[in-house]
Amino acid sequence: MAEGTPLGRLVLRIALLFVPCIALWHFMAPWADAAVATGARLIVDVVLPGVVRQTEIGAQALTFVTAITAPGGAGVLTVDVNPRLYSYGIALYAAIVLGASVFSLVFRGLGGENLVHDALASMPGGVFAAVLAVTVWGAAFDFLAHLVREVPGALDSHGAGTIARTVIALGYQMGSLMFPTVIPAALAVAIARKQLLPTAVVRAN
User: Fold this and answer.
1) DSSP string, the chain
2) Of residues 69, 89, 65, the one with CA closest to residue 78
3) 75-111 pLDDT, tens per residue?
4) How far apart, in whole angstroms, are the C-alpha atoms of residue 196 and residue 103?
5) Report field, pTM of the whole predicted structure over 0.85
6) 54 pairs with which residues across the strands?
7) Residue 50 to residue 45: CA distance in whole angstroms
8) What's the whole-number mean pLDDT along residues 167-178?
9) CA distances from 73 to 37, 56, 141, 145 (A)
């Protein structure tokens, strides 16, 4: 049975750890909303300057208040974006790293703490900065994609030509399908692999 193999036990352990990790992520995610709102606004201003007047932080969503007249002429268009859709990868990252740490019986003896520390220190702010960047990207292009779908005609006056629309489409696909899982998982697997390789060497000897 797969559960009886080392890899099977590791996968099972990661799956069990993912539940408390996702719960902790859900509790802590709102703390990053202000940074996400600021970063997303910067990206939007680069792609479509002047389209956003302000951003508002709600309990479950970021609200982009635009300079575009709402359909029907009733005020300005506002768009709600849920940043949680793009930051859940941090829970996956934590589950993989913790699972590999427990799995590696000689992890501490072989300097595993230093491996993790070096990996986190290799980028400003560590893995959390990477996940925050993914969330910012996802929220920004979620908003921009909404504009392309809902008010395509109004975007012409804000410089949304063919190139801008292509950039928005590509950015949305990457931000919604690739970045939220691929980046945290790749970072976690890289760290977990460094933890597990010394164990494999010891077992082989």
Assistant:
1) -GGGSHHHHHHHHHHHHHHHHHHHHHHHGGGGHHHHHHHHHHHHHHHSTTSEEEEEE-SS-EEEEEEEEPTTSSSEEEEEE-GGGGTTHHHHHHHHHHHHHHH-TTTTTTTHHHHHHHHHHTSTTHHHHHHHHHHHHHHHHHHHHHHHHH-TGGGGGGT--HHHHHHHHHHHHIIIIIHHHHHHHHHHHHHHHHHHHHHHHHHH-
2) 65
3) 889 999 988 888 777 777 777 767 666 544 434 454 5
4) 8
5) no
6) 65
7) 6
8) 85
9) 26, 22, 25, 21
| C-alpha 173: how far from chain center | 13
Q: What is the pLDDT of residues 29-75, one digit of tens each?
A: 777 788 889 999 999 999 888 899 999 998 778 999 998 887 776 78
